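PT: before anyone asks, these are the final sequences, not the draft ones from last week. 227 residues across everything. Please model them as a single complex and drop the result in this thread when it's through.
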Amino acid sequence: GENVEQHPSTLSVQEGDSAVIKCTYSDSASNYFPWYKQELGKGPQLIIDIRSNVGEKKDQRIAVTLNKTAKHFSLHITETQPEDSAVYFCAASTNTGGFKTIFGAGTRLFVKA
Amino acid sequence: DVKVTQSSRYLVKRTGEKVFLECVQDMDHENMFWYRQDPGLGLRLIYFSYDVKMKEKGDIPEGYSVSREKKERFSLILESASTNQTSMYLCASTEGQVGDYGYTFGSGTRLTVV
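LR: through. Structure below.
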């Protein structure tokens, strides 16, 4: 079946460093790619998203890139801060031939002060 | 601030009980969803609804049912709770066509079935 692979599962960085999380999807009909941040005891929160007609999108310290040919998309966090510590999920979504959103397994990011 | 509110943060129920999980959104969103989240298994879709009184099965609907009598409210029902339904349950909503926009999630209900 269709899936989304997310790497790494755990990532530890020093405060101020950059963090990169990568996802690969299998469904070529996917056209919407959101990223979520989940802090302890809370529901996931949408932090950035990208659509298939765009290659890159940036919002302050967060950026997402998409390579449709390779079916890869990545989350980049620059100048990391301790409050960036959380679990991050990618997802790939389509509504072609029926709705489907598939989530990655998540990346636990630790930012050390 | 837009919100999805789940009625309970923590629930403990006995095996065989009928359990109701309630979710309300204040954003006038068309679509509402129920997911469960388990370590190592990620987020799995149970049911979703794209309109009042409409429902669609997700990937793991067995043992669950849903009700959407009003646009803002989406209820998940465990007909006869079992221990393998112990999990974190997340409600979410989106605007527009299903799959076109990101989710707004509630804070979750952690259900323990004993």
